Amino acid sequence: MSKGFRRIRGVHDGLPDMVRRWRRIEEAARDVFSRYAFAEVRLPVLEPTALFVRSIGEATDIVSKEMYHFVDQGGDDICLRPEGTAGAVRAWLQAGLSRAGATRWFYMGPMFRRERPQKGRLRQFQQIGVEWFGVAGPVEDAEMLAMAHAFLHRLGLDGLRLEINSLGCPACRPAYRERLVAWLSERADALCDTCRERIQSNPMRVLDCKVEACQAALADAPEMIAHLCGDCAAHFAGLKEALGALEVAYVVNPRIVRGLDYYSRTAFEIVTDRLGAQGTVLAGGRYDGLVAELGGPATPAVGFAAGLERLAMLLPEEPAECPDVGVVALGDAALPHALRAARALREGGCSVLWCGGGSARRQFKVADREGVRFVAVIGEDEAAAGRLAWKDMHSGEQRTLTVDEAIKACRAALRSTARGIASRP
RNA sequence: GUGGAUGUAGCUCAAUGGUAGAGCCCCGGUUUGUGGUACCGGUGGUUGUGGGUUCGAGUCCCAUCAUCCACCCCA
After folding, report:
1. Does A329 fall in a domain?
2. For residue A403, what are the contacts with CB-CB under 8 A and spacing of at least 6?
3. What is the CATH number of the domain that holds A92?
4. Nucleotide nearest residue A372, measured CA to C1'
5. How far is the CA of A88 from the C1' of B7 (A)?
6. Residue nearest to nucleotide B45 (CA to C1')
7. Is residue A77 one of the residues assigned to a domain?
8. Quick count: other Cβ atoms within 10 Å of Cβ A185?
9. Rounded to whole angstroms, how far apart are CA atoms A129 and A142?
10. Å from A27 (CA) to B62 (C1')?
11. Is the per-residue pLDDT at A419 higher than 50?
């Protein structure tokens, strides 16, 4: 166990094994999202604290307890973004795009929340987010879900479940909320301590309490989905119809809730049972109230975000890429020729490992450990002749080639095998 | 913020309160111009940290820190 500096709590070092998975996820996202004509944006990690205070509200203690925020040397109250949507709305408004019609954006990057770490929950984590500004219809919600589905399908993930719900709108939710609070208050005795407190602080959350006794008591609790206004009911019906047309499988889960008021209508989660208590892999929905809340013109919008770390945990290991060629240099006199040969091979498109000098045996062991396909041996004889000894590590066959011939041999071999998954015999 | 579990070599793990070990990895050798296998040798530890009990603590007690899991919260 190393002394000295250690990483701070709740953050992870992205070592090569992990970065290979991240990259696979990022590449899938870029490819799938661009087929749906979404454009990538890269937004600041630092934002004014007030942006999130405004979007999240003071209702919960998220801002005071779970955001990294500080006053900088200029006296500005700054924070590390805890999520992507508010910053995207801010950037979209600041760029004047609210007059430009619907906008389709996606982004990926680190987010920060000062929570107690646990499985699938870090203090610095990465999200892939998608926002679609200026569209109001259920068909767009379905498109969003189809895109999320395609993304996860591209990653080869199975055993996932899409759950959808409707959260209503400012026209129908307040009345429902009152009805729910009244219903819960009558049955408070049957609920756990935390739920009793939640009746006032966050009544919707009672519905997805994890305590079994609560779930039993809540079996007949009123659900938003049964109390939607006409417009919301029509929207939800339209969503289900479009999902049916797209053959995207889903289940309606009336207990999906959101903590904040700017959410409306469609809410969805894609969950797995393979990650313990943090099983939501992708979540999103409609936030028709947020743009106005942040000072822009009333603008409907829908989006989702997925956690890169959780997705990575569901993915199989990604094999490391092996170098194509190991260069073995023997003797000081051959060194200049060997160095130039390595560079020439790289310029020719091969990935080349310098085996580090020393005995031939040692350098071959390095080459073998790294899984190279070929070894180029350059000693005094080869240097004098302007050639190299070219050994195929699979067959063991060795011959004398010029550098140009070696490049050709290397390229030919890599065309016929899957690059980067050099199999060891 | 609350609760539980766990901290011994780079990694995975042993060690009745009585000399801190093994396997893997790494380095070297058997082979100073040829890899995998095998064999031989070697590097590497304030047992997370700080106190306490004891003739003696990796082991028992207290505190603290870290990791993991769950609760809370989940934008």
Report:
1. yes
2. A341, A344, A345, A348, A388
3. 3.30.930.10
4. B35
5. 43
6. A1
7. yes
8. 12
9. 17
10. 52
11. no
A336 and A303, same domain (yes or no):
no
Q: Mind listing the pLDDT tens digit for each residue in A31-71?
A: 999 999 999 999 999 999 999 998 887 656 677 788 999 99
- Smallest CA–C1' distance to B33, residue: A360
Q: Which nucleotide is nearest to A371 (CA to C1')?
A: B35
Q: Which of A289, A314, A339 is the endpoint of a domain? A: A314
What is the ipTM score, two decimals? 0.89
- Residue A50 identity (one-letter amino acid): A
Nearest by Cα to A33 from A139, A130, A140, A123: A130
Amino acid of residue A374: F
Residue A416 has a pLDDT of: 62
The pLDDT value recorded for residue A424 is: 32
Nucleotides of B under 7 A from a protein CB: 1-3, 7-11, 26-29, 31-36, 46, 48, 66-75
pLDDT tens for A217-233 read 999 999 999 999 999 99
Distance between the alpha carbon (CA) of A8 and the C1' atom of B66, Å? 10
